[in-house]
Design goal:
alpha/beta; Metallo-beta-lactamase, Chain A; 7-stranded mixed beta sheet
């Protein structure tokens, strides 16, 4: 099974604190890196986790609030200083483009790589990126400005051929890819070996859903059903529900309700308000509803 991991680079909210940096995560799959949001300090956190900037091809922005984009100028500039030539793709609500254009005009004139922005429709659930390894879906969210989450869905690999069958029937190496693709094999004695006899199924696919920032949306569950991991914002405790509604954020209990309704395997909560000093209470509140909940923290790596 290929490594599929989520790296937490920042899990605070609008106001940075000594404890938490603003929002930023990195998805690592089959040697490729995908960044989600890019708050202040993102590139320092990126380096601290030993991640390789040359493997970062795409950045997915949830919405155009500063705590989700203010790390972009430094990151874009650093990649230019490092001699990047590969195209960088940035996805997000259309409002983000003006910020990217400003960064390029003021700080990145003459860089040696191209930045391509892809506007995401925040009201639709659709594939916004796809390659041989993964599909990325947009998830409509509801915040004070247009916002969306993202669902990273691993594509199924080819079946694995049984080594003992290769040896037992002298199957040439040149036929292995054909068999993985669905072919059978006829042995020297005329015995017909089906594809199913020669292979074992590929490992199950995995998925990760990122939902921040948003007011609690009961309808979200159908879009993230069965995800292996859900990151859902939990800016406030339930006792500050009135504040969550005012600011279009969610409570820890609501994040757990979303996880429970979607029947995900694991929930990670974050985007903590700067006024919250006891995050363990948020964890307990969520675990009362959905037991398999963990707290986000800078430096945390979650293996799927």
């Amino acid at each position: 099974m290929e490594p599929f991991s989520v790296h937490i680079l920042g899990c605070g909210s609008a106001r940075p604190t000594y404890k938490h940096k603003p929002a930023c995560q990195v998805v690592s799959l089959r040697g490729k890196l995908f960044m989600i949001d890019c708050g202040e300090g993102a590139q320092m956190a990126f380096n601290r986790q030993g991640l390789n900037l040359s493997r970062l091809g795409c950045i997915f922005i949830s919405h155009n609030h500063g705590d989700h984009v203010f790390g972009l100028p430094g990151l874009i500039s650093t990649m230019a200083l490092l001699g990047r030539t590969a195209e960088l793709h940035i996805y997000g609500p259309k409002e983000v483009k003006a910020f990217i254009d400003m960064v390029e005009q003021l700080y990145c004139e003459g860089i040696d790589y191209k930045i391509t922005f892809h506007a995401v429709d925040t009201k639709s659930h659709q594939i916004v990126f796809e390659d041989r390894s993964i599909k990325v879906w947009s998830i409509p969210l509801e915040h004070r400005i247009p916002a969306c989450g993202y669902m990273f869905c691993e594509k199924a690999g080819l079946p694995h051929i049984k080594r003992e069958m290769i040896d037992a029937y002298n199957i040439p190496v040149c036929q292995i890819n054909n068999i993985k693709a669905g072919a059978g094999w006829t042995a020297e004695d005329g015995q017909v070996l089906t594809h199913e006899m020669l292979t074992v199924p590929a490992a199950p696919t995995r998925s990760f859903a990122y939902c921040s920032d948003t007011i609690y949306k009961p309808g979200l569950s159908s879009l993230i059903k069965g995800a292996d991991l859900l990151f859902h914002e939990a800016t406030y405790p339930e006792k500050l529900l009135y504040r969550a509604k005012q600011t279009y954020h969610s409570t820890a209990r609501q994040a757990a309700e979303a996880a429970k309704n979607a029947q995900v395997k694991k929930l990670c909560i974050g985007h903590f308000s700067a006024r919250i000093y006891d995050e363990v209470s948020l964890l307990k509140e969520a675990q009362d509803v959905f037991a398999n909940t963990i707290l986000a923290n800078e430096g945390l790596i979650i293996e799927l």
